[in-house]
């Protein structure tokens, strides 16, 4: 059974293999047929392509011709448009900028665009002629533009009236009614100066905002045309003249050193006060407003912005600074110190604003001129300090005060020193110009102490003019007491210190004691009579009575002479005057009462007792109350 089954399987495999061979043969036949067909198509396509090539070449040529025609037409259209632009620009330029400035500026820009176009396309047959015509037209256009720039700038450039400037100031600095020069407020106290520094200023509008963009465009076109220098000259000549006229109307003068020397001090002091006021107005209002105009007009034109501002303002700055320079270089005198400090102070106050306004490279000379004046004022003020110290010590006025009161030099120097302390912060800044760090404070103390010592030295010399040594001591007592009292009541106390005050109070007391000892020594010697007298019987009593009478007679004469003379002397300070009277009374009245109590009876029992005992102790006390009143 197993064999037949195997035979059947082999037969099946054979059938399948035969079928596969048959299929492969058919597939190969089909493939051969397809290859033959494709070969036939390739042959026919190659023939078709060969037949179509001439047509394709003609079609491509036609397409390129059309493209070339389009390009040519477009190029021609561009050129024609350029010619149209040139004709329109020429028409507007011939009419000029006055009627339609914006259209005129647009025409110039179109003309420049055409010049660039034909410069880059010189292959055109007529490009050279077109360029020549366009450049000539542009030159005429710029010339008219310069004229328009000048006319427009001039028509809107007017001096600023003083009243308008005063309205821009803070209320605290506005002058009252009347002449600006006589009413300009000059802050002098410390608080006033702080207010002036922190006050809000509103710079005036110099050129209407609607006009500035037009002027900017005009300037820009001039610069683009290579006419920067001409633009700067027109701007400088127009604006600088207007700025100087504004200052002139305000009252600013250009004075030389010789002019200053000829002016009386009262007038010069007034001019210095107004100059300080004018400096604030110039820097904070006029120069600030001019800077704003310049920045807006030349925005984006950096080459001109700083240069034009410097050119416009340098003449006005020089005019203002020349006055300060003339004062700094004029003959020094003590009364000029405070105006020098005022001038130095305003220059310090304005320093940061000047540095900011004139920050450009072109403004370097202006900045240096301002700093130079500040330093010269500081140097002159410092030298005036030295002059004052020397003048105080060497003051040779021979006019003595007959009544021994406070000498005019003393009150002058003390007031001078007290006034200096209104400038304490300014003085510290001034000394910092020459000293470093905290030494400026000690420098001020040192200067003040030297001035006080110079005064004391001079007073010692003046006291020797008195023939009466009692009056010498009274004079020194009065003057040094005035110095001490003034220092104690001022800021000078903090600077000179308590040691200085206590030391000089002791000097006052020493002179008071010396006065009392010298002036009253003889009167107080009445007590010496008590050592005489006594003895036996009437003779000794007679001798004692005669001696007592003699003592009383001498006392009366001496006291009356002192009263007559010293009631003409003066102790101006009421406390010191009462203290001195009391010091004399405390010694004189007890001695007199004791003498009268012990020996008065000897005289009263004799003839004409009132001839010798003229005064009671109360009379003497009342008469002492008339001493030092300066009566004639």
From TrEMBL:
GO cellular component, one term: exocyst
Source organism of the structure: Lactuca sativa
The protein, known as: Exocyst subunit Exo70 family protein
Alphabetic keyword roster: Exocytosis, Protein transport, Transport
Domain Exocyst complex subunit Exo70 C-terminal: 274-625
Polar residues bias (residue ranges): 173-189
Sample GO molecular function, one term: phosphatidylinositol-4,5-bisphosphate binding
InterPro entries the record matches: Cullin_repeat-like_dom_sf, Exo70, Exo70_C
Homology family: Belongs to the EXO70 family.
Function: Component of the exocyst complex.
Sequence segments annotated as region (Disordered): 169-191
